[in-house]
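User: Hey, my collaborator sent me this sequence without any context and asked if I could get a structure. I don't really work with proteins. Can you help?
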Amino acid sequence: MHQSLIVVENVHCASVSESVVFLVVSSPSLNTGVSVLKPLAARRRSGVRVQGREMKRLTWFALAFTLIATGFAAKTPYQAVLQHSRIRGRSHGPNVCAMQNIQGSDKKYFTNCKQWYHRKICGKPTVVTYECCPGYEKVTGEKGCPAALPLVNIYKTLGVIGATTTKMYSERANLQEEIEGPGSFTFFAPSNEAWAALPTEILDALVSNVNIELLNALHYHMINKRLTSDDLKHGASFPSMYQDLNVHIQHYSNGVVTVNCARLVKTDQHATNGIVHVVDRVITAITNNVNSLIDTDDDLDTLRTAVAAAGLTSLLENEGSYTIFAPTNEAFEKIPPETLTRILGDPLALKDLLNYHILKSLHCSESIVAGTPMETLQGTVLEVGCDGEEMTINGKAIVTQRDKLGTNGVIHYINELLIPDSAKTLMELAEGSVVTTASKLFKDAGLTDHLIGSEAVTLLAPLNDAFKDKSLAMTPDMKKLLRNHILKERFSSKNLYHGQELETLGGVKLRVFVFRNSLCIENACIAADDKNGRFANMFIINKLLTPPMGTVMDLLKADDRFSTLVGIIQRAGLTELLNKKGTYTFFAPTNAAFSAMPPADLSKLMRNPKELANLLKYHIGEEFLVSGAVTSHTRVTPLTGDKLELGTRNTTVYVNRVPVVEADLMATNGVVHAVDVIVKPLPLQDCDFFSCAKGPWMKSGDFQISQIDDSKVMALHMFWIFIRLLLWNFSLNCLNQMLVQHIFCISFYCFCNDLVVAFDIPVACLHGLSWNKYYLGT
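Assistant: No problem. I've predicted the 3D structure and written it out in structure-token form, which is a compact way to encode the shape of the chain:
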């Protein structure tokens, strides 16, 4: 199916006029769709609103085109990045490709949209260069690369594309006649830089012995059939022309293609008798599996012993496609002896540890251009990335040797042992994490035995920030509190349910509360994924846990700040309510709140028990709600039947714009949040919580909202950013993204017309930004 680029509309963004490029595919259905767009766009420019059936047609077309555009994506990841590079280079003439060159190196890449936006590869800034696309060359006096490269035999093609060292060695090895003659070959030709990077002793060995070794080496770079980049499928193997030993292809989703871990830097250079792909290193024949490679390397003695003890030898001998991060002897020596002895003596922990070093798929170092989570055989993920020339694991540059390839995988050597959570004790889980303060306190409280042994417990570990402004003195009360942070059983947060009670080592039963966006145990909400250790689990919680010590009424009586409130509760006849079983949320006014009332108003209120009761009931919610469960637009129904509007800013909770001065005072029948201002109903306004919020809780500068329309513009702007990210995740090429975004924007404009006056196609236009500069990065 033929596809072409045409300009179909000019989009006016405020004072900026930009041409929007559509991808038009020769298909009756798509041409019909474009014909729908044109009159509608024209009507918009003339001031006529697009409504009803026409709006529906446009919306359905936008959705349908998204699916169709996805279907017309390039056949392979490499073709996708090549197509994107062609689009980026089109302004420089025909057949020009834009490439990103890492500053300070000679590495160049075709890239996708996301990398183009970031202008970084392996964390390093890139410079955009423009070169002829594969198969084309410049013509003096003409723009771009209008001429196709001459179609000659492979030997001459090597000279045309600049692989002159390979051409020279082909002649020296008596390969010239073969690659000039009839046939259909694929030649993975090392670049000049690849030959120069070989150690002198290896190169000398290749060109000695009457050049037999050199001929064998070059034959290993050849396949006796023509294979374009489209034919180089991920995980494929092809017999080479040297003893039919296989070469191994990897074709990654980011467009990188490798042969025996050598990256293809120039592809699809056609010749009369085959095709040439230039690679960035000289490749060598592979005959051993990864287990044999480990067995024969003295630097991996400890690893070899561990693999045998864990029963993984057969796995590493069998067919597969693995990536092994192999810890050297030095890496094992860095581990504390007691930890290493424990793991080596525990078959399950040892197997988990080793499987944590093995990825399920083969990843050559050249395939890594940014940090990417990759699944291990142990079941969790490692983030494999790069920092300049360094390969990183979980952000650390610990790879000392790369790309030792076997028949069933690749080995990267590392100088640091990776220990998964599933091989750690609770104490090891806590150390070096975001709960180090809690870890030290548990040690000081004499609870270490529970955290290093094989006891099946669950540790509730508060974040370090939870201890700010709190005394860390190891008092009897602190020891008691810390014992109540260790549950007697091993739990998974995924199995907890609302109303469940969990018994602690201190004998206290803690309640579980499930909210829409939070899972909380008493006042503390779980702040991260579970840490599942060898024998026990750890929940990271957002604050120090405080078990309930009585009813709401008991709690208020025990706190001098609520002495006035206690008297008012008794006068209003609500004592029994706050003592009985329930799940109340009480926004409790402190003495300061009542002192701030005009004396006459307070006196009048005290003379009317019914009005007093209604005031207090407006402060009492029917549902239990801790601060960790409050998000924007959270609503609580008070006992009066109205609505309390809750929100958060930084770490402070607000109720009807009144700040909560202390949250989460836990009781057996509810929770108390202290407020220093009497909570009153919000005035009725035609706006939402944030656009209306101009009370004492939101001062000038907290949010850049000056009027209702501004808040809606901000909401629309954020929604458009979300749509951009969504389209990126669809992994469409940039041209398809441009089309889908443009069509969607027209529909979105009509939908938003009633919200923002003079809202023209992209939301960014309201900010005076160019469509291209903001959305396409050009």
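In plain terms: The domain at 552-692 is CATH 2.30.180.10 (FAS1 domain). You can pass these tokens on to your collaborator as they are.
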